[in-house]
Write a structure and sequence with these properties.
The complex is a heterodimer of chains A (148) and B (77). Chain A has 148 residues and is an alpha+beta fold. Chain A is 30% helix and 38% strand. Chain A is globular. The chains are: A alpha+beta (148), B alpha+beta (77).
């Protein structure tokens, strides 16, 4: 049976709470065909740049385009790997150093699909989603984040 | 017909956060030429162009109802 997936919203205003991640794991206990989960969490790093410490990153996105693109990535990854489910959450707005800004969660019957799919989603979303981050220093000056 | 231009990331430092209207741009090349005159700091900045949320390359014709977005390098995650 082919089920059509609709574009989901991935954006959350503010940081992703660890309790939200715990609840998300908890919700999978009824899905007993799952044998492995893979989770990636992105955390805002307090980089030291020219003697200035990053206090927060303010994320913005071209939301409509990002959601369309994420839908394509989701479809591709479901076609490539035998996943049971996939959840993606990305923060918008100001996220302080140490807080979680990205949560990617894939689940499958056996570990390899979940692990490989999780890695692929993280790599593709960093490369393909129109999202930007302003690194705000402790003195309120800023620079634009570049993905490595 | 005017075309609406939106920008993101570091380009908001040059063009602000509000849409910019450009008159009489038949294609994306003419549009960029006009923007470069109005916003000289835009010249040589790295970005790709999306017309109605689709990434385009080369000279893409514009109808007047399009929204053109200038997208600097992505930095999600």
């Amino acid at each position: 049976m082919i089920t059509e997936r609709k574009p989901k919203n991935i954006f959350t205003q503010g940081p992703i709470a660890p309790s939200f991640i715990a609840d998300s794991i908890q919700k999978h206990e009824t899905k007993t065909n799952i044998g492995g989960h893979s989770i990636f969490l992105g955390q805002v790093r307090a980089d030291l740049i020219n003697g200035q410490k990053v206090a927060a990153i303010e994320y913005t996105a071209y939301e409509e385009m990002a959601l369309e693109k994420m839908h394509v990535i989701r479809e591709d990854v479901f076609a490539k790997y035998p996943l049971v489910c996939m959840h993606v959450h990305h923060s918008l707005g100001k996220i302080a150093a140490g807080e979680i800004c990205l949560f990617v969660f894939t689940s499958s019957a056996h570990r390899k699909a979940a692990i490989d799919a999780c890695t692929e989603v993280v790599e593709r979303l960093k490369a393909e989603l129109p999202i930007w981050g302003k690194e705000i220093f402790e003195d309120e000056s800023y620079q634009w984040k570049e993905n490595k | 017909m005017p075309v609406q231009v939106i920008v993101f990331g570091q380009l908001t430092d040059i063009m602000g956060n509000n849409p910019v209207m450009v008159d009489n741009a038949a294609d994306t090349s003419e549009l960029i030429e006009q923007l470069n005159i109005r916003f000289p700091a835009l010249v040589n900045k790295p970005y790709i162009i999306a017309v109605d949320r689709q990434i385009v390359t080369g000279h893409t014709a514009l109808s007047g109802n399009n929204t053109v977005a200038l997208l600097p390098p992505f930095a999600g995650g």
